[in-house]
Design a protein that fits this description.
30% of the residues lie in helices and 20% in strands. It is α/β, with parallel strands linked by helices. A hairpin with a 5-residue loop joins strand 13 and strand 14. The two termini are 36 Å apart.
């Protein structure tokens, strides 16, 4: 197969850089355009020195890219700015495949978007066609899509752990409590006081308590699986490591046992290349998936009667963002889903 020509919007951010890292060794991809308006004119290795060995195009403003020459574009821009840029790219090249790693097309309900993101959606004509890109749940729709809205890192970890259980009616979806922790890269690369080493190191900080925007995605997809509106208790934390994510979900059982939950998850993911359900007594750990596109899920009985604890972990920059986007790109181009993504976790 001829290599697909790829552009990356927002290549100077962490998700954009991880897309570069993975695509640089993808056998069917050629990176031909990199954008970063604030770093325009620089070599990628000036912004990310670990790319010193790669022959990459220079960073340019997004308006200077000839989008008609590209087969796919990955978007790692912040929410809010993404909608109009993606609309312009698709207008220039209606055949291009878009892998959006921002939050701008994830919510199906336009009113929900305005509620959670503070402004009206600026590309409603595209929002209706966007496919929610949680690969394991929407594989066939992703394969046929032009615009894929890749999920947030927290929703990916939570939904893979809980959607099969909600669909099978094994848990009470009105009694879900999610304690989530993410590495500092989840906060982006911009200069913020709370992510300075002396502020984030040697400490654990909750944020956006009761109001984190990823709650909307989680509720949308668990509600779709359960067939009813859902509200979850979701609290994220910043943990002092560069990458990685761990979600602990406390659930009430609907006449099931923790072993039933594990069996349902094993059935759901028996043929999935990247989702692994641990054996009874084996606990997921962030170090088991660091730098990889893999997800680990485990189930533990709570000592409280009729409750269980579901554990899930992934790398927030890979399966939680760039890796999942590439997994979706593979589907959209009819490639084996695992192409370019079978790296083993980096340990220790």
């Amino acid at each position: 197969m001829t290599k697909k020509k790829i552009g990356i919007l927002g290549a100077s951010g962490y998700t954009g850089a991880d897309a570069v890292r993975l695509l640089a060794r993808h056998p069917n991809a050629e990176i031909t355009a990199l954008t970063a308006n604030t770093h325009a004119g620089k070599a990628m290795s000036e912004v990310f020195p670990h790319f010193f060995m790669l022959d990459l195009p220079k960073l340019v403003e997004w308006e200077k890219v000839d989008w008609t020459r590209l087969d796919a574009a990955f978007c790692g821009l912040p929410h809010g700015t993404t909608q109009e840029i993606i609309a312009a790219v698709l207008k220039a090249n209606p055949r291009i495949k878009i892998l959006d790693m921002s939050a701008d097309f994830r919510l199906r309900n336009k009113d929900s978007y305005a509620q959670w993101y503070g402004h009206e959606h600026r590309a409603l004509e595209l929002q209706d066609e966007a496919v929610y890109g949680l690969t394991e749940l929407y594989r066939e729709k992703v394969a046929a899509a032009r615009l894929v809205a890749c999920p947030g890192c927290y929703p990916t970890a939570v939904l893979l752990a809980l959607v099969p259980l909600a669909k099978a009616k094994l848990i009470d979806v009105d009694e879900i409590i999610i304690d989530a922790k993410s590495g500092v890269t989840g906060a982006g690369r911009g200069l913020k006081q709370n992510t300075l080493f002396s502020e984030a190191g040697e400490g654990l900080s909750p944020y956006s308590i009761g109001s984190h925007r990823h709650s909307a995605e989680i509720e949308q997809e668990i509600g779709a699986a359960a067939g009813s509106a859902v509200t979850v208790n979701f609290t994220p934390h910043l943990i002092p490591m560069a990458r990685g994510e761990f979600c602990t979900s406390y659930v009430k059982l609907n006449g099931a046992t923790p072993d039933d939950l594990r069996a349902e998850l094993e059935k759901a993911y028996a043929n999935e290349p990247f989702v692994y359900v641990t054996k009874k007594g084996v606990l997921p750990q962030t170090q088991n998936v660091r730098g990889s596109n893999y997800v680990q899920i485990g189930v533990v009985a709570d000592r409280i009667k009729n409750r269980a604890i579901v554990l899930s972990t992934l790398d927030n920059l890979v399966k939680g963002s760039a890796g999942q986007a590439i997994q979706n790109m593979n589907l959209m181009f009819g490639l084996p889903e695992t192409t370019g993504l079978e790296q083993i976790a980096l340990f220790p």
